[in-house]
Write a structure and sequence with these properties.
The complex is a heterodimer.
Chain A (H helix, E strand, L loop, with lengths): L5 H16 L3 H26 L8 H18 L3 H23 L4 H21 L1 H4 L12 E2 L2 E2 L3 H23 L2 H11 L1 H6 L4 H27 L9 H14 L4 H17 L7 H15 L4 H14 L2 H4 L5
Antiparallel strand pairs in A: 1-2
Chain B lengths: L16 E10 L2 E11 L4 E5 L6 H8 L7 E6 L2 E2 L5 H7 L1 E3 L12 H8 L8 H6 L2 H21 L14 H13 L5 E5 L7 H16 L3 E5 L3 H7 L2 E6 L2 E6 L1 H6 L1 H6 L9
Parallel strand pairs in B: 3-8, 3-9, 6-7, 7-8
Antiparallel strand pairs in B: 1-2, 1-4, 4-5, 9-10
Chain lengths: 322, 269
């Protein structure tokens, strides 16, 4: 068993333990949201952290997944398991069409391009009321069941979500460690040199953009059939910004960064309810503090803190030695 | 051309690289004007000229980073002008950069593995499934990359972060990365810039060994000693025009070259 597999095995065990030991429905709900957000952050982290391309409209793909499956199942009683591939294919197709021109942009311009795309999709969700239910939202989305096995029990849904998240983590790890992943990192480091060694830079950016959109649509599917009600507000600009924040806070170019970032940004609002009116201020302060003291993100920051902690005990001993 | 005398008695095999009346302007500035020359297979061809002569522009045209305004570039008889870099690398044209452009966040070995990009096939799907053929390809790529690191003398640095290497080694790594694409022509843009005497001599040997592997080399170089020592033929550019071409011996004696470039003093051979 290679050592690099160890963290994944430990994490799987942790997830399994949580699934078996937690009893409180509210706790399950939070853990499910962490899973959904991890899926979103994972795709975006690949795009931003590895390929170096920013997307300020990622909530649009999240929404496309949720609305495609929601509309198909609520309006036309399509099986969710048939609606899922439809949602993924639609998100992939839209990502491809949008990415083709916008990924030729870079830096701020790509940010603006994806921002505009996110706004357009948001407006479509809100204004195409006959299909999406408009601003008041889409009701009647059925919960999931697997054959005779109902998945609306929070524990069952927790396992469904987290099995998918773990699979996505392993697949993303594989992607990063492959020829494709090296090409993506090469683009991030020096697009010029990447082209010069034969990497079709635009093609790879497009591929990772589509991959991240598919993960986002998958997250949207899981969200829609968990809450069974969706409205445009869940897929607006602020959600896109929150996703970017998860990636940056968690740590760019890191699978674990996606998990940490998603967990922190999901848990913080829950913990901060106690601050009532000051909630957003405390929230902002915490994010600023993390960025000041851990500019590489939580993952790197925690590893560094651990290394410092390990070195510490050696120091008091040295003055005593002759 | 002034130099077409009896000393130029090579058999004239079909050229590997052939530039024909290539011109390039940036805005109103003419960087290159009607440049024509050939590079024969198996040769080490030097490209010299004062700063601003258009050497790097010419490299960018041949490697596909820029498109010529007019004129044609043929590689092994095939027109290549205007084709994107990644296609040219696949055809067998590799390059290095004047200012060394490595992938800084990656290890030495990974840099060379990226260099294998056009000789490996694993795509998105293969990366996700990691089936037997992909694992085999990955093993072979690593093997090949390690051989190349040994070839340039960096075998024991395989796992070091590439940005931590001393500058001279970064150059060697960049050459190994370029060789990983199994090029037929290697374009070296001032490979000796920033190297000390010893490193520069070793580089000269390395360039010779690369040619012995059957790779044709076109190099821009300011270090006259190195250029005269390793090159079979030299093309001289001056202010975007081809001044002359010939063997190092001919170039050293050429009055216009002496005037335009060597400042009147014959270079050390």
């Amino acid at each position: 068993m290679p050592r690099r597999h160890l963290p994944y095995i430990l994490f799987t065990a942790l997830v399994a333990a949580a699934g078996l030991l937690v009893t409180n429905t509210y706790h399950f709900q939070v853990l499910i949201f962490i899973g959904i957000n991890t899926l979103l952050a994972l795709g975006l982290n690949l795009l931003m952290g590895y390929a170096g391309q920013i997307s300020l409209g990622h909530a649009a793909f999240y929404g496309l997944g949720a609305y495609t499956s929601g509309v198909l199942t609520a309006h036309w009683q399509v099986s969710p398991w048939l609606a899922l591939p439809a949602a993924l294919v639609l998100a992939a197709g839209v990502a491809w069409v949008v990415g083709l021109p916008t990924l030729r942009l870079s830096g701020y311009y790509l940010g603006m391009g994806t921002l505009g795309f996110g706004m357009i999709i948001f407006i479509v969700f809100r204004e195409w009321a006959s299909l999406t239910g408009g601003a008041s939202g889409l009701v009647g989305i059925p919960p999931l069941s697997l054959g005779p096995l109902p998945l609306y029990d929070p524990r069952a849904y927790f396992f469904l979500v987290w099995i998918i998240v773990l699979a996505a983590m392993v697949l993303s790890r594989r992607l990063i460690d492959s020829r494709v992943g090296r090409a993506l990192r090469a683009i991030h480091d020096s697009e010029n040199a990447a082209r010069a060694v034969g990497v079709n830079t635009h093609g790879y950016k497009l591929q990772v953009f589509v991959y991240s959109a598919v993960l986002a649509a998958l997250a949207g599917f899981l969200y829609a059939h968990f809450i069974c009600f969706i409205s445009p507000g869940s897929f607006g600009f602020m959600v896109s910004v929150r996703l970017v924040t998860m990636v940056v806070i968690g740590g760019m170019a890191s699978i674990w960064g996606a998990v940490f970032g998603a967990a922190l940004l999901t848990l913080l609002p829950e913990w901060l309810h106690a601050f009532a009116d000051f909630e957003m201020i405390v929230y902002g302060l915490i994010l600023i503090t993390v960025m000041i003291f851990m500019p590489q993100g939580l993952t790197r920051g925690l590893i560094d803190a651990y290394l410092r902690f390990k070195r510490q005990p050696a120091q008091p001993v040295s003055p005593a030695s002759p | 051309m002034p130099i077409c005398d009896s000393s130029d008695n090579r058999p004239n095999p079909s050229p590997l690289l052939h530039l024909e009346q290539v011109s390039k302007a940036f805005g109103g500035v003419r960087a290159l004007t009607e440049i024509s020359f050939e590079v024969a297979p198996g040769e080490i061809q030097g490209l010299i000229g004062p700063n601003g002569a258009g050497k790097t522009t010419l490299f960018n045209l041949v490697s596909g980073a820029l498109k010529p305004d007019t004129g044609g570039i043929r590689f092994d008889g095939m027109p290549i002008q205007g084709r994107p870099s990644h296609e040219l690398v696949a055809l067998g044209i590799a390059r290095t950069f004047q200012n060394v452009e490595l992938f800084g966040s990656m290890s030495v070995l990974e840099n060379v593995l990226v260099g294998r990009h056009v000789r490996t096939r694993c795509g998105f799907w293969g990366a996700l499934t990691r089936h037997a053929a992909v694992r085999k390809e990955e093993r072979e790529a690593r093997q090949k990359a390690l051989e190349l690191l040994a070839f340039v003398g960096l075998a024991d640095q395989a796992d070091s972060p590439s940005r931590d290497l001393p500058f001279g080694w970064q150059r060697l790594l960049e050459i190994a990365r370029a060789l990983a694409s199994e090029p037929r022509v290697l374009l070296l843009d001032e490979p000796a810039a920033g190297l000390n005497r010893v490193e520069s001599d070793r580089l000269g040997d390395l360039i010779g060994r690369i040619r012995d592997q059957g790779v044709t080399i076109l190099m821009v170089e300011h270090d006259m000693g190195l250029t005269m020592r390793v090159c079979d033929r030299i093309v001289v550019l001056d202010r975007g025009r081809l001044l002359t071409e010939g063997t190092p011996r001919e170039i050293q004696r050429h009055p216009e070259v002496l005037a335009a470039y060597l400042g009147g003093a014959p270079a050390a051979g």
